[in-house]
Amino acid sequence: MTDDRRHPIFARLYPRMDAACARAGGGELRDELLASARGRVLEVGAGHGANFAHYPATVTEVVALEPEPTLRARAEAAARDARVPATVRPGLAEDLDVADVSFDTAVVSLVLCSVRDPGRALAELRRALRPGGELRFYEHVRGDTPAMVRYQRAVDVVWPYVAAGCRLTRPTADRIAASGFTIRRRRDFRFPGERSLHPAAPCVIGVATRD
Asked: Where are the domains of the chain?
């Protein structure tokens, strides 16, 4: 299985979209995601390295995996200016080339929506974490009203083809809880605002521990 997943158009557009999100408060969400993260960190689906500037000093090392080559090159550049030691390499969430129980913290942000097999990805993340290790997650998810879910399902007919395989209706927090993790903290919200009608507006952010 190759560690590359090429989405060249999306890869060139995504950093611009993320910059717009940062102006709307996305940077604060990344701070919330990573606050008090510690030790050796595995970040899966690092994109262009947007999280690197938000890691606290309690992190000793970040190993960041990104399968999209254009985004990975951007992440490698960002790693050189990161506040903590960070290395970037190819890698798929469903087949992590890392040792068992070798990380204190795992991070996924806007990733589990697009992996091909979320259950296998979560099993791999659990394998990589030490007992009691933390999974930090920030994902957009299935809506919490029937109207939003119907809207997301309609948009999902075309959405994955323009958004690098992203799916709008995944119940990601429920899957985390069913995959050998205990959710310790969870906040559900819409981004960029509670009245947003964007199909990817429903989000969840939180911390789970490996059982």
From this structure: 8-210
Residue 106 has pLDDT above 90, yes or no: yes
- Give the integer Cα–Cα distance in Å for 181 and 179: 6
pLDDT tens sequence across 44-64: 999 999 999 999 999 999 999
Q: Are strands 129-140 and 202-210 parallel, antiparallel or unpaired?
A: antiparallel
Residue 4's pLDDT is what? 67
CATH node for 8-210: 3.40.50.150
Given a contact cutoff of 8 angstroms between Cβ atoms, the answer to whether 203 and 210 are in contact is no
**What is the distance between the alpha carbons of residues 129 and 117, in angstroms, rounded to a whole number?**
19
CA 140 from centroid of its chain's CA atoms? 9
What pLDDT is stored for residue 32 in this prediction?
Answer: 98
Cβ partners under 8 Å of residue 170, min gap 6: 112, 113, 118, 139, 141, 142
